[in-house]
Amino acid sequence: MTNVKKVKLYRFERFDTKRLQAIRLKKLWFASPNKFNDLNDCHLNISKMTDDFFSEDDLFSAADILYKNIENSNTHPVDNKVLMLLFRKYNFETLNGETVFEKFIDILKQGSEIVVPYAIEEMLRLEIKKTTGVCCFFGVAPENQLMWAHYADNHQGFCTEYIIEIPEKLPTIGPYSINYTSDWPVKIHEKELIFSPVSTINRVVTTKGIDWAHEKEYRFIKLGMLDPQKNEFGKKIDLPSGLNAHRIIAGERVEGNQLEQLKQLASDLNLEFTRMTRQSFS
């Protein structure tokens, strides 16, 4: 039997009727990291690692297996134009003297600009920040005043307590526990994006500076869910499996009709309802 761990997670938010409706419909908003309050969030640097880890033949063989049917697939989380730059840099487009990428290359001929490290770096930064959907939760207890001040409109918002059952084998969507580090922003090598793209991008999106460690953040992640051509900056999706709302917590400064709406929401969904007071933080 798979081991399952139950964890309480929290979302601190300003009062918004759209958010109340999302909770009622059991939806979550996955947002683009482009507007996150940490300027280095989901920001990567290309490291100066050497290229002699594997022989050229080994690299070509691996690329052949991974990308032989790339023209018929849209499952790779890195945009095809970015991949094209990486392929050209490592000469994969003439793999084994065959035309493995012929259709792929024909589609992307317009991407024939000279490959330079900073161009790849900037394209990847934009790609991650504009196409990835992220939903943030926190493991810190609701008695933390900083969370109410920063995320819940200075105690005029509310907090939703969720309980999630986390299996031993984590689903692709998460939740991923944030890794806090002083080695920041995240450094990666281009080849990591070619040969292990999902884990590499997840590492970028789930690493933050040590200054944020007090939040004990968790993230649900969906790679490539947003289309920048349509100016998408977020989408609602159904609650991930195992995640359920448990309690609505009103901020101390929530009053009148807004307080009644939060109480009604909790009652309608059979959730617990509490309200923070000054004594709650003592």
Task: Summarize, please.
The protein has about 280 residues and is of the alpha/beta class. It is built from 9 helices and 13 strands.
Protein described:
By secondary structure, this protein is α/β, with parallel strands linked by helices. The longest helix is centred in the middle third of the chain and has 15 residues. The chain has 2 domains: 148 residues, no CATH class; 84 residues, no CATH class. Helices cover 30% and strands 24% of the residues. It has 9 helices and 13 strands.
Descriptors for this entry?
282 residues, alpha/beta, 24% strand, elongated
How is the topology of this model organized?
Elements: E1 4-13, H1 17-24, E2 27-31, E3 44-46, H2 56-67, H3 80-89, H4 102-107, H5 117-131, E4 133-138, H6 145-151, E5 158-167, E6 176-177, E7 179-181, E8 186-188, H7 190-195, H8 197-205, E9 207-209, E10 217-222, E11 234-238, E12 243-250, H9 256-268, E13 272-275
Parallel strand pairs: 3-8, 7-9, 12-13
Antiparallel strand pairs: 1-5, 2-11, 4-10, 5-12, 6-10
